[in-house]
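In the design runs reported in the main text, the only information available to the sequence generator was the tokenized backbone. The following block is the verbatim input for one such run; it is reproduced so that readers can re-run the procedure and compare outputs position by position.
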């Protein structure tokens, strides 16, 4: 739900905005809604920073991820409904091979994609799978906490940025004292945090995180480019040594009915991929492995499969493709 001064309340269905048949919201009404959602201290922080993230639960309605931000001297609010159910990896259509890697004792796993394309949901499903199958200590750093995990075989300690720790960096700086086996970071935003994550992956921990990036290969480059030039060769080597896989995902509208379905591109860090990362040739991964290998599956192949199963339209698949000609070739639609 989108609440913005000057237009009626709006709801977003499968990337399309639909406005309610009511009067436009005023700035004062939007501000009143914001104050009802936030605590007094949170409101003071918001006034100082200009934006604020939190999660709220209404027992009769559900749980929501909320972002508040200032625009044109008024307050806008975005509410995303969070399901109480932790979906399984199978239900989300995450590739089955992922299970083998998320049970490994150490390494780095990255889930990437644009905002609003299910990265947090995929992360939660991975944590739940580990929780069901391993006896270990899991520490999560989240902004905010969306999915609430129960202790199953593992202990799951969920830390809310701004409430339980000041920032992702501060939470990571002290994480080794908490004796974690698995470290889950909701989002990597700065080089200092990522350096600690690489250190953790290099010293016997499994690290799972998300990055905003458009493709699997650009995910790796985006991380490297966080660092100053004189550090980038070292970071390339450390990523090549510790990366398990990158899963870049999109949520595509279903052909029939409301909802979206997962399409993904993945890079598994094989010997060949390690060399391309070390040599600064990640841009060649897609061109060298486009036809599909054990190490790499293109987004277009995933979209083509969804189209062949009748789950999405050809046009939606084409819209989300990076290489539109390859998508046309794989779907055999002229």
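Verbatim output:
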């Amino acid at each position: 739900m989108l609440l913005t001064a000057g237009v009626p309340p709006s709801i977003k269905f499968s990337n399309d905005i639909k406005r309610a048949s009511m009067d436009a919201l005023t700035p004062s009404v939007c501000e009143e809604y914001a104050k009802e959602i936030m605590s007094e201290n949170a409101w003071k922080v918001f006034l100082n920073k200009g934006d604020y993230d939190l999660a709220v639960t209404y027992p009769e309605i559900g749980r929501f991820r909320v972002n508040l931000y200032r625009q044109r001297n008024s307050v806008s609010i975005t509410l995303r409904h969070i399901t109480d159910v932790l979906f399984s990896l199978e239900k989300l259509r995450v590739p089955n091979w992922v299970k083998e890697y998320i049970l490994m004792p150490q390494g780095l796993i990255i889930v990437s994609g644009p905002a609003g394309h299910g990265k947090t949901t995929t992360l939660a499903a991975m944590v739940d799978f580990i929780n069901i199958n391993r006896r270990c200590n899991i520490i999560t750093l989240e902004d905010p906490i969306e999915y609430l995990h129960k202790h199953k075989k593992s202990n799951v300690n969920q830390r809310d940025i701004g409430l339980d720790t000041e920032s992702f960096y501060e939470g990571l700086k002290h994480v080794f004292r908490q004796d974690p086996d698995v470290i889950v970071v909701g989002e990597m935003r700065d080089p200092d945090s990522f350096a600690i994550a690489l250190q953790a992956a290099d010293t016997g921990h499994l690290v799972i995180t998300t990055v905003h990036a458009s493709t699997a290969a650009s995910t790796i480059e985006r991380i490297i480019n966080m660092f100053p030039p004189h550090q980038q060769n070292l970071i390339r080597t450390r990523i090549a040594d510790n990366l398990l896989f990158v899963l870049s995902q999109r949520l595509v509208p279903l052909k029939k009915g409301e909802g979206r379905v997962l399409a993904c591109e993945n890079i598994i860090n094989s010997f060949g991929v390690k060399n391309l990362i070390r040599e600064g040739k990640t841009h060649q991964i897609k061109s060298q492995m486009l036809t599909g290998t054990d190490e790499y599956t293109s987004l277009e192949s995933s979209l083509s499969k969804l189209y062949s199963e009748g789950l999405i339209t050809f046009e939606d698949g084409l819209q989300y493709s990076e290489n539109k000609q390859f998508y046309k070739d794989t779907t055999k639609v002229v």
